[in-house]
Write a structure and sequence with these properties.
The complex is a heterodimer of chains A (291) and B (319).
Chain A (H helix, E strand, L loop, with lengths): L1 H6 L4 H31 L1 H4 L31 H37 L1 H16 L2 H12 L2 H29 L2 H8 L4 H37 L11 H8 L8 H29 L7
Helix pairs in contact in A: 2-4, 2-11, 4-5, 4-7, 4-9, 4-11, 5-7, 6-7, 7-9, 8-9, 9-10, 9-11, 10-11
Chain B lengths: L2 H30 L4 H6 L6 H10 L6 H13 L13 H36 L4 H15 L2 H15 L12 H7 L1 H27 L2 H8 L4 H38 L5 H10 L3 H29 L1 H4 L6
Helix pairs in contact in B: 1-13, 5-6, 5-9, 5-11, 5-13, 6-9, 7-9, 7-11, 9-11, 11-12, 11-13, 12-13
Classes of the chains: A mainly alpha (291), B mainly alpha (319).
């Protein structure tokens, strides 16, 4: 990695020092939080003390106690259990969006960056257009009026997330195409498709991988925003965004009911952002991200 | 013709066709809604054959799609978006009632974003690799990760419920009352956009500070402040302006989330309520307004590029 950093014009000493300084503390915490979220999602049944959908109207909006660690909501459902189960939708949707955006973005980015010319300007015009749109609002309007529910929302977000990946991959592909190994591959008479996907692709991958994590974080923020607005996940699902919406009026009676899912969203998204930033620095040696 | 009108004309030549395409999509929303279009437009009222026939006649539903669109767009250009299905008021009236609050909130949030984000980004760039820089960056990572509604709930809990510094409900009556009612919503709105402004300002100012002309100006004996303000920051403003465009798009979404969080009767809650009630004329009007807003913002950005960077003025594209 260090030699790569030098090749790309980075400042290896400064970066090296920063990485060693930064990993144990913040990034370590980020990995720990993500680990906890994954465990919660996989073993929700074992961890959650109660059935997340078990209503008990005689125990409505209780404050936190030994029995209910985070108290209960309006319908008497256990908040702690619902937060644990919420890890499921918090992982599945964003993973799909990040991977989907990554796949489309890498494909279009390699095409635009390597082929150039009319393909490039066509792809980039599409990217600029998508950047100008408030993706979340378009998703709200389309899913709200045309329908399609959760999967439609995920599909639309994939479309709105792919342009940023496209732009990154295109930039990297542009930089790689003039490197000697690409020229060598061209001299050998390899097909364009092979050069793009077998030669440039793998070299671009580490950088795009960092963006998959950043995309995940933003997808989580977006999907829980949609859930908060009543779009996507069906009512009753233990989802962090939806919980925030349901419990926003309980701030006086049991604040934990609204604050806990909010913190869960922010902590998970911040962890993924930190991991993404860290991966990006590792793979490029540059520190200024998303500029 | 001066450079400014020429620039505006050139950009409008692209943007107006784009708006036209968007308007077709917005028009089609009505057809795409599930179920019979006339029934959708009748809404919750009893759908007698007479009312259905009246609706069909009013919206020209029996004509071919293209003619329907032409009728609709003619109305739209004259400011007539039809009537709300829910309240039966003209859509323009419904929007006019809600607009001031959203404008107030948006302006307030934007001022906070730029007023805090710009100085923070510049300070971080000047003190790179120090503890101050790292804490500013850390806060901005949290900002990117915190959706406006989560920030809103947390602010509401801490400053509204626990400390009781700010009112927790309602939009406020007069200007000053509104200022205190909208402070928490505006902060929630500003927080995530703030992170973006800090990031871009820090990166681009840092980049300018590394350039030779800065080193030269310092060596020539110009004071730090003279170099930073008029030279480095001014050159960095070109990239920052691009980010401001993104900030506006961010804020459109943010306003909707924040208004729902704080139960404010603005355009954002109107959009969500109308989507849920399938009040399509209102949704169409709001969607077109958003599109027009984005077009105006982009036009404004193009103009400020030209003001900031003389190369753009004389026809050479900026990098």
């Amino acid at each position: 990695m260090t030699s790569e950093a030098i090749a790309l014009g980075g400042r290896p000493t400064v970066v090296g020092r920063r990485l060693r300084k930064r990993f144990p503390l913040l990034v370590g915490m980020a990995f720990a939080i993500m680990g906890a979220v994954v465990v919660c999602a996989l073993a929700s049944d074992l961890i959650a003390p109660y059935d997340p959908n078990q209503q008990n109207l005689s125990e409505s909006a209780l404050r936190p106690s030994a029995e209910h660690l985070l108290g209960t909501d309006q319908l008497g459902r256990d908040i702690a259990s619902r937060v644990v189960y919420g890890a499921r939708t918090a992982l599945v949707g964003p993973v799909l969006v990040a991977v989907g955006g990554f796949t489309i973005g890498t494909f279009l980015g390699l095409l635009a960056g390597y082929l150039g010319g009319r393909t490039d300007s066509l792809v980039m015009r599409w990217v600029d257009l998508m950047f100008a749109l408030p993706g979340l609002l378009v998703t709200v309007v389309i899913v709200g009026i045309v329908g399609g529910g959760y999967w439609m929302a995920v599909a639309l977000l994939v479309v709105f997330f792919s342009p940023s990946d496209t732009r990154i991959v295109r930039g990297e592909a542009l930089r790689q195409r003039s490197l000697p190994y690409v020229e060598a591959a061209r001299t050998l008479g390899l097909s364009r498709r092979r050069i793009m996907f077998r030669h440039i692709g793998p070299n671009v991958l580490p950088i795009v991988l960092a963006y998959v994590f950043l995309d995940f974080a933003f997808a989580l923020v977006s999907l829980s925003g949609l859930a908060f607005l009543g779009i996507g996940v069906s009512p009753g699902t233990p989802d962090w965004g939806l919980m925030l919406f349901e419990n926003r009026n309980l701030l006086f009676r049991n604040p934990a009911a609204a604050v806990a899912p909010g913190i869960a969203i922010v902590a998970t998204a911040a962890s993924m952002n930190l991991i993404g930033d860290w991966l990006y620095e590792r793979s490029t040696g540059r520190t200024d991200l998303r500029s | 013709m001066g450079w400014l009108p020429r620039l505006v004309f050139r950009r409008l030549a692209v943007l107006i066709p784009l708006l036209a395409i968007v308007s077709v999509g917005v028009f089609l929303l009505l057809q795409l809604a599930p179920g019979d279009t006339a029934r959708v437009l009748v809404g919750a009222k009893p759908a007698t054959p007479e009312t259905l026939a009246a609706i069909r006649a009013r919206y020209h539903l029996d004509l071919p799609l293209l003619e329907q669109y032409l009728y609709w767009i003619r109305g739209v250009l004259q400011g007539d978006f039809g009537r709300s299905i829910v309240t039966n008021q003209p859509v323009t009236d419904v929007i006019a009632q809600r607009l001031p609050l959203t404008l107030y909130l948006g302006t307030y949030g934007f001022l906070i974003t730029v007023g805090i984000g710009l100085p923070l980004g510049i300070v971080a760039a000047l003190r790179r690799q120090t503890g101050l820089d790292r804490s500013i960056v850390a806060v901005s990572v949290v900002g990117v990760s915190a959706p406006a509604f989560a920030t809103g709930i947390l602010l509401l809990y801490v400053f509204g419920v626990v400390l009781g510094w700010f009112p927790t409900f309602g939009p406020g009556r007069d200007f000053l009352d509104r200022l205190s009612h909208l402070t928490l919503p505006a902060l929630a709105l500003a927080f995530s956009a703030l992170a973006l402004v800090v990031k871009v300002t820090r990166a681009s100012t840092g980049e300018e500070l590394d350039k030779d002309y800065v080193a030269f100006a310092r060596a020539r004996g110009l004071s730090r402040m003279r170099v930073i303000g008029p030279y480095a920051v001014r050159n960095a403003l070109v990239s920052i302006t691009t980010a401001i465009g993104l900030v506006f798009v961010y804020m459109l979404t943010g306003t909707v989330l924040v208004e729902v969080t704080f139960a404010l009767p603005g355009l954002g809650t109107l959009l969500i309520d109308s989507v849920q009630a399938l009040d399509i004329p209102v949704v169409q009007a709001l969607t077109l307004m958003i599109a027009a807003f984005i077009v105006v913002v982009h036009l404004g950005i193009d103009i400020s590029y030209a003001v900031l960077d003389p190369r753009v003025r004389y026809g050479r594209a900026a990098a």
